[in-house]
Amino acid sequence: MRQLFLGITIFFTTLSVVFAFLPLGTLALIPIGIGIVFGFLTIKKSEESQAKWVKILLAITLLSLVIVVGKEVFIDDAVEVDQKFETQKVQSKNEAQKELEDMEGLE
Amino acid sequence: MSITSGFAQIKPGEKLVFAASYNMSGLMTQLAQVTMETETMKTSKNTFLHLSCEAETFSKWDSFFKIRDLYESYVDPATLKPSLYKRNIFEGGFTKTEKYIFKSDGKTVVSTSKRKNSPEKNNAFSISNGTQDIVSLIYKLRMVDFQNFKIGQTKSFQLVFDEKEIPVVVKFIGKETISVGNLGTKECYKIAIGARTQVLKGKDKNIIWLTADAKKIPALIKFSIPVGTGQLKLSNASGI
Questions:
Q1: What pLDDT was estimated at residue B217?
Q2: Where residue B7 falls among pLDDT bands split at 50, 70, 90?
Q3: Which segments of A1-107 does DSSP mark as H helices, in order?
């Protein structure tokens, strides 16, 4: 049973780190939560000498939690000025004006 | 210049900014910013109201799935009857452009569309009187006088989307007080949108909240599409 819990902890700790660095927002809380729960369960099932590595995994998961919460609190969602898109909008408007003028000419 | 019909006023210079979220494994994740703007467009003979709706992914998402969508409609300022509709989408590398010219007879649409790696297609099809495009329909909804609607009361519209005319039925569900971005907390009309299309899913799962005042600002839009659910939440309204 300990081996199974340890495997799950390792998997979700890895996933927590990956999710924490991807722009997945609070979605990262899912692997983090599972990682923490199975981390504690693994510690409970472990001898004191075996618990050291699990505690390190748990610390990594908690660090991922701090990164995710920090990103949510301190980094605002922002849209960057996309020059290509801005040009496309102006172009589209100019084309529309011409098309509307053409339509009026046909009436 | 302001446009008044019923109780609604749609002015040029209006700008509504929404945060679009998508439901990922039960958690709403903010993906993009949606901006709806109005402005006057003058030609030598007419004055149009240019309604635009653009969607842009937040910069942190751009490297994973970049979205740059632009929907535009040029309408009669008084009636919101469309003359020209344009759609230009870029979604994670997929592109599609569409242009509908609404003929002055009010019965025909001439369309031009092009998908990525496909040749341009030209088409002409018939529409009913009063058919709207998707952008002008959202604004048209704001011109409905929901004040006297009873719960469950419906109103029908005709929408042209993907070169097909689709009947749309909106149903007044009731009133709810919700957060309306920088406008604080307001009482809103809760309206369910139903359409006979594959684009929208579920009964009463596509809902729009409009402020229960003369301006009827869209405060929240919840949608259910074949690939999941999401919402657009008003974050900032200006020029209203």
A1: 94
A2: very low
A3: 2-21, 29-45, 51-74, 83-106
Backbone angles phi, psi at A98, to 5 degrees: -65, -45
- Residue given tokens 């939560």 in the structure block: A33
HSE-up of residue B46 (Cα within 13 Å, Cβ side):
19
Over 50: is that where the pLDDT of B17 sits? yes
Chain B segment 14-73 residues within 8 A of A by beta carbon are: 19, 24-25, 27, 29-30, 32-33, 41, 43-46, 48, 50, 52, 54, 56-62, 64, 68, 70, 72
Residue B178: Cβ-neighbour burial (10 angstroms; 0-12, 13-18, 19+) = middle
pLDDT digits (tens, 9 = 90+) for B107-122: 899 999 998 888 889 9
Q: What are phi and psi of B204, to 5 degrees?
A: 55, 30
Which phi-psi region, left, alpha or beta, contains residue B158 (left: φ > 0; alpha: ψ -120 to 50)? beta
Q: Are B206 and B200 in contact (CB under 8 A)?
A: yes
Yes or no, beta carbons of A78 and B59 under 8 Å apart: yes
For residues A40 and B56, give the distance between their C-alpha atoms in angstroms, rounded to a whole number. 41
Interface of B with A in 198-237 (CB under 8 A): none
Q: What Å distances lie between residue A38 and A35, A71, B27, B154, CA to CA?
A: 5, 24, 21, 51
What's the rounded Cα separation, in Å, for the pair B96 and B32?
Answer: 19
Q: Are B190 and B174 in contact (CB under 8 A)?
A: yes
pLDDT in tens, B32-73: 999 999 999 999 889 999 999 999 999 888 888 899 999 999
Under the banding of pLDDT at 50, 70 and 90, the label for residue B30 is confident
